[in-house]
Amino acid sequence: MEFREFSAKTVDEAITKASLEFETFSENLEIEVISEGKAGFLGFGSKPAIIKARKKETTTSVEEPAAKEEPKAVKKEERKEVKKEIKREPKKEVKRKIKTEPEQPKEERKVPERSQEEIAEMKAEAEKFLSGVFKAMELEVEIKMDYKAAEGNLDIEFVGQDMGILIGKRGQTLDSLQYLTSLVVNKGRQGYVRVKLDTEDYRNRRKETLENLARSIAYKVRKTRKTVSLEPMNPYERRIIHSALQGNRYVETYSEGNEPYRHVVVKLKNR
Fold first, then answer.
1. Could you give the maximum distance between any two Cα atoms of the chain, in Å?
2. Residue of 123, 101, 27 whose CA lies nearest to 255
3. Which of 142, 167, 200 is the last residue of a domain?
4. Could you tell me if 185 and 218 lie in one domain?
5. Crossing angle of helices 172-186/116-136, nearest 10°?
6. What local confidence, expressed as pLDDT, does residue 220 receive?
7. C-beta of residue 154 within 8 angstroms of C-beta of residue 185
8. pLDDT in tens, 211-248
9. 89-114 pLDDT per residue, tens
10. What total number of domains does the chain contain?
11. Are 218 and 249 in contact (CB under 8 A)?
12. How large is the average pLDDT for residues 250-254?
């Protein structure tokens, strides 16, 4: 199969396009990155990300069917027909149960009131940890923080050059940094503080990409009447898919599998 070219704002979005076009996971594709794209400044000088992709070739060996043995000639005198009534017990149908549970709705949590001193302490701990990480990576990064008292969230934004390194493939590096920073901030503290890391508006761009993907998959399921399983995602991204298709009249979604391979399944509604 020849390579086909796909372009989008980012490499991840281009890979998503290729996965939809070939109707398979990205792991089953051979991908060549032609250009990683450029965001530009205020829309000027921006360049799309370009990739080439094709399905991986799989070789299957076909075994030649064994030659049928010719039945041996049997003398008529030796052939005796014996009629026996054989009672066959009906086979019991074994139904396999697949763990398919919807995502649990978010529980309303009580946000404790925090003093300005405690908020300043949280920010200092987060900044100390992240500054050490960036120093080891030899990156110059400006760290901006904002604590939202109503939600109990500590929002942290990174500003600098080459922030794609901090984002990583499909946000994996950013998610890992977020998890570690959350451990540092919440260590020995009463009441959970939700830490959110972002740079170059990646979270909103990823959310938009997933919502577009959800709508495309829903249309495909409705058209082909076939169930589609998406790639494994973290709980946050799975919730985006569920929310995007929650009001759809034709399809429904549920999550299947165990972490870290838990994924969203989109199927036609029983009507």
1. 106
2. 101
3. 200
4. no
5. 140
6. 93
7. yes
8. 999 999 999 999 999 999 998 888 889 999 999 999 89
9. 555 544 444 445 555 545 556 778 88
10. 3
11. no
12. 94
